[in-house]
Amino acid sequence: MRMTRHIHGEWLTKRRGIPLCLAFATWWLAAVTTTLLFPPMDSTLPISPIWAANALAYGAILVGGLRWVPAFALAALVWNVVRGDSIGEIIVGMTAFVLMLLWVAWLSHSLQQHVRRDRARRLLAVPLIALMSASVFAGLGAWQFSDGPPSQSLWMALWLSETVSVLLFAPLAQQICHYGVKNTFLSIHFKHWPLWLWMGVAISALLALLQLGNGTTLWHLGAPYLAVTVPIMAVYWLPSTLARTAIALFVTLWLLVNVSLATQPTISFDVLAWLDRQWVIFIASLVGFLSIESVRSAEAASRRLTLLRLKDPVTGLANELGVAELAQHLSLEHVSVIGVQLPYTDELVALVGDDTVQRIERQIADQLRSQNADDIVKIARLRPGLFALVMKHTPNAQHRTLAERLATQLSSERSGMEIPGTHLGITVVMLPNVQVSEFSSMAALLLTACRHAQRNPQESLYHYHGTTAELIAQQSQEAAWIHRLRAALGGDTRQGKLLLYAQPIVSRREPTQCRCEILLRWQSIDGHVLSPQAFLPIAETFGLMPQVDRWVLENTLFALSQHPNGHRLSSVSVNLSGDSLNCDWLVDVVDELMSRYEWPPQRLCLELTESATIQDTQAASLSLQQLQRMGVCLAIDDFGTGRATFAYLKQYHAQELKIDGAFIRDLESSAFDREVVRATCTLAQQLSVSLVAEFVENDKQVMLLEALGIDYLQGYGLSPPMPLDEYLSCIDVLADKWQAQFNTLPVLSSE
């Protein structure tokens, strides 16, 4: 609220025509009011105990700068002429006043340039102006009002008058310029009980001062010092915008009381006694000024901390707390949310450092800010790498168009969001209908949606059509899966266990050659066996794949070393995730496991899925080269389905390609699929790599694939996946079966 008032209230600094006339009128109003309230007290002190006009001018110059100098100078000139000052007095006085105004403007500019903290600038500006103005005008006043050498009491009275005026009214003028007249004087809430309490204390203090009069007892002398606490009470009981006005009003009335006591007709004017009370008023003004600045600094610090608590320090966007706070002020029930995720931020930070990753995040934030849409409610960075664009809910397709454009911009090579040797894989999702009451869990909703999107990397935008309740339920299921997987990997099988399955890889030319691919299954506590699609995407999302890959490799080699037929396998293929390729332990672990279980490197094939996300491609290439030098075979799985098929093959130098089943299923009826397989066979021959066809389902496909030049076959048409121990036990039976099956098949021409 205070920030809104501040921005709204800077009306004097933004409107050009009115302020100059208003500055003239304000200076004159203050001068006339001061003259009427405080006529000259005595022939020895022919001055007013306060002069608010100049102080108001200083405060306005601190805010508005040099453009108000002519108005205030003209007001003072007209005043001096009307008052009947001599030409010499006018020239000297006006020169001093104009120079003082210019000095105040210079001081304000210098403090802005050289003092960074706003509190320090405020604490320096007004006291320095008070000292300078008091020194200048006390000297000029003593010269003007003295026929001979100026008296010390006159100089001191003028000095106190000027300092008290500046301490009270210069900050008040600043406040008026910042917040406006309405918020300074007309926003008083009379139902605010501390205001009534303070008014009662202030009136009581003034009446007590007036009643005690000019006594010399300790109580009479100490009462003014007790009145110094009244401005302090105003600071801590009243709002800061009201406290400054209240203090100025109280001190002005106190000055009236002081003048009344000093000019009573029944006693002679005591200059020293009056100056003593003026010193107490000066102390009250200074204490009030310092107290207000202290409270304002505390309030500003509190506001800054609140903003920092709700603001992301990296991008300047709102953070997760800021979005949750937004829910308390929105009148909407539903919103649409576009989520953007930079995945694997922790790994990227470890790879290239905080500065580079944060640079990418700031670029994403800039892209979000650049979206021109009137219904954008909030842009936020909820967590490292996770952003949200919150918009008003509308039933049309406008938001989807915005999301698609954003996805295109973020995926464009011209966006500049690149890290050499890595694939960022920025994910964009859209949740078209999110309840405002669910803002506190928005990060979890977007992360769950992004995990769904990452399972379909070919789509640049993932549009979630379900309800947020379904997302929350899926999140709970994923959390349960993570708990079960971690337990199983640690050896606790009470909630289920991982199973090793094998699917044979068969050569028609040598059906007795034993090869298989290791597949993973999950057996729940009720005995049901689940496919890897039920849990592997979750394991990949939550960073468990390196542990899973290590478990599969170790348990596979252990099972082969324990089974009598394990040594008969000419090769065993194990899938390797992109996350494992980024692990620095990969080469050492593979080498150690092969040594422990006495498995020759030439009989181990590591399958790398072409669509796998590899964050550090350079490190992955280095690891695979080391494994290949050891003798381990590398195969590229699902070949032909990725977006960088040939670049993948060129980068990793595989010895085997596995053609994805998408090109095998319709091989009999699709001339396109046959040509793709034929071209792949030609490529394989040129590169001297072997070919495996997946998803082979019938004899016709077997004959076509052999005719096209495929080396190995894999699929339900030959054998479904089976437990590894079962496969090892029936190797001979399966080989005889395939031999008999192939003997009955004719050999087709490659044409």
From TrEMBL:
Pfam families: EAL. The chain crosses the membrane at residues 17-38, 90-111, 123-143, 155-173, 193-212, 218-238, 245-267. Gene3D superfamilies: 3.30.70.270, EAL domain. InterPro entries: Cyclic-di-GMP_PDE-like, EAL_dom, EAL_sf, GGDEF_dom, Nucleotide_cyclase, Rev_trsase/Diguanyl_cyclase. Keywords: Membrane, Transmembrane, Transmembrane helix. SUPFAM superfamilies: EAL domain-like, Nucleotide cyclase. Residues 478-735 form the EAL domain. This is EAL domain-containing protein. It comes from Vreelandella lutescens.
